[in-house]
């Protein structure tokens, strides 16, 4: 009989195990505030945290494992707005994303772990699961808007949040640029107006709403 190995950083809550995890993740956060992901090593984590390197290797196996655990912990700190107004919620979420990526350490975490995921399918699976879980949590913004009658029940909540978030990661990871207030405004407004226009509504055949001006099967356009 074989026993499946636990995921990176998994541990029983409380006690020495929890203190060890907190110390190592705090050390990783501090290190990434002053150096790039590629410079992070097990030895530097052990030295800064006071946890023996063999313990870190046994629990997380790799530096990437530590940083994935850190990413999961800190991405959950981005608040999910619930102001009672869909447009305001989108703006507040966009601002929270911008503030999260406004620190060097958080940018180093994201850039490093995405780079690692490109070369390691296992890491890619964990990163995908982490971001998917976060997106699904934040979709409550859209669900509340539907319940208030602000949006169609056919709206794809996940796609709304993806459309809001995508410009930030394009700016950071592809253009290697900085996040500014204009990006916050544009991403929130674009997602808001697209959602109200039905862009994210599921269509009967294609999974998206159809445009009668471009779809010959949608019937004539009338004023």
Q: What descriptive keywords fit this protein?
A:
223 residues; mainly alpha; 10 helices; disordered N terminus; disordered C terminus
The helicity comes to 55-70%
Number of helices: 10
Instruction: Round the Cα radius of gyration to an integer and report it.
Output: 21 Å
Order of helices and strands: HHHHHHHHHH
Give the beta-strand count: 0
Overall average residue pLDDT: 83
Largest sheet: none
pLDDT under 50 segments (min length 5)? 1-13, 205-223
N- to C-terminal separation? 70 Å
Class from helix and strand fractions? mainly alpha
Cα shape: elongated
The fraction of residues in strands falls at under 5%
Protein described:
The protein is mainly alpha-helical. 61% of the residues lie in helices and 0% in strands. The chain contains 10 helices and no strands. The relative contact order is 0.10. Mean pLDDT is 83; it is low at 1-13 and 205-223.
Write a concise synopsis of the structure shown.
The protein is an all-alpha fold.
Write the layout of secondary structure elements.
Blueprint: H1 15-32, H2 42-49, H3 53-60, H4 63-75, H5 86-100, H6 104-117, H7 121-138, H8 140-147, H9 157-174, H10 181-196
